[in-house]
Every structure is written in C-alpha cells, then in structure tokens.
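Lecture 7, part B: from sequences to assemblies.

Below are the input chains for today's worked example.
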Amino acid sequence: DIQMTQSPSSLSASVGDRVTITCRASQSISRYLNWYQQRPGKAPDLLIYAASRLQSGVPSRFSGSGSGTDFTLTIFSLQPEDFATYYCQQSFSTLTFGGGTKVEIK
Amino acid sequence: EVQLVESGGGLVQPGGSLRLSCAGSGITFSSYWMGWVRQAPGKGLEWVATVKQDESLKHYVDSVKGRVTISRDNANNSLFLQMSSLRAEDTAVYYCATLGDFELHGGNPVWYFALWGRGTLVTVSS
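Predicted structure of the full complex, as structure tokens:
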C-alpha cells in the first residue's frame, strides 16, 4: 500500500502569512494527488485535484504543486477562514489519505 | 440544492450490524461513482469503499473486506453501506461522497472526492 506522510502535523500562523504544507508518497504517484480542507465539525472540501488543478469555487490563494513523491499545498496570504486541517489523498493505487496538517492561529 | 445526506448511524454493540444510507439531491446521482470515507474521533480520513455507477465494480479497504457491502439504488438516488461484525475500531463518522475523475495524459484518471455529505456517526461499544 502507498503511504502518504504530511508535514508538519500542525503549524501556527497569522492572517496574511504564506503557509506551505508538504505531502510525501512512499512511492512515485505521478500527479495522482488531491488536497482537501476540513474545518472543525465539518465535512472535508476538495481544494486541489491532480496535484495542481484548482477545484471550481476555491480561492486562488490556494495552490498545489509537485509530482512523483513530493507535493506541496501553498496558501498565499492566510485568511481567517483558512484555519482548518488539510489532507492530501492519492489515487495512484487504491485511495489513501495523509495524516493531516492542522493550521492554527498564532 | 446540491447535497448528500447520510443517515442510519447510531450505537451498536461489538459484533452487531448497521446499514448506512446516503440520499443525493440536486445531482445526476446515477452518473457518479460513489464512495464512503470514515473518520474516527480525533483522527484522520480513511477511504472505506467505492462503487461504480452500475454496481459492476466495487472496491473496499482491506480492513473492512468481508464485513462491509456497498450498494446503490439509482432510481432513488441512494447509496448504502451494510456493515456487519462491527468492531470498536469501526467507530467513526461515515461520510458519503461523489467521486470525480480527471484524465492524466491518457492514462488512468485521477480520482477525487468531489461532493461530501455531512456524515453520520457510528459508535461500536458495549
């Protein structure tokens, strides 16, 4: 099975900061990588699919990059509503999620 | 309104059974692969099962194989998850979701969970 490792597991940031979250696959997954945001008590929302494609309706301050084993989610200019937990998910072989990265207010 | 609404969760004893349902509205339900994803309390997300539009393909995570069956009723825009031999580790919020796909360079598509329901809580405890 392909393991997905996110780092950091949590971070503190301020409104307006640029935030970078990484996701590493245990083997190459090309660009079979998606990102989700989950606010407390809510269902996840799709942000990015195929590593870098922005889901319709998602603000352009969210950006995804990477291929192979290393991927990045960047939030340019963090907004109050962005404090949440972020998950990566691969679909190269079955479907597995990373452990999540919690973005907290500094 | 475009939405998925889960139901059927509750408290069940270890070894017991439960059937979860998911009702879709505002979408062409029959045109989507559908799936279930769960989240144990305070933990991350785990894919559970997916089913093709015509039920000709079904996939399960290893930890539920033989204990869980995914099915659907397209005429009634409904998705189901029949769970049996439940264990404490099955305790979680269960989300249903539509699957989207995006073709990458003519190869297999990238699969992603596009639309999610609010979830239903399953608690396995004596």
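Note for the exam: Chain A is about 0% helix and 50% strand. Keep this in mind when comparing with the next example.
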